[in-house]
Hints:
By secondary structure, this protein is of the alpha+beta class. The protein has helices at residues 53-65, 77-86, and strands at 3-7, 10-15, 18-22, 27-33, 38-44, 70-71. It has one domain (3-86): Gcn5-related N-acetyltransferase (GNAT) (Aminopeptidase).
Amino acid sequence: MSKNCKVSKYEISEVDGVITFKNKNTTIGFIRFNKKGEVEYIFVNPSFRKQGLAKKLLKLTKQKLGKNLIPQEPISPLGKKLFDVKN
């Protein structure tokens, strides 16, 4: 089931374990996760980085699942830094 709502300058949609931020022109970022709380993939479009969007994606996912998130291996150095700070 898809859920959509307008937030600021982008739309948030959630479908089958993927939360996506997008605007009318492009995908801004997304996170893919499973019910165990494992983050399988997180991506933010390079044009939209350094705005806290990855942290927002993690926060939304954590709220949805109601548990701490676990990065799946292998995790990139940037992803590790994000999890060390946020989770």
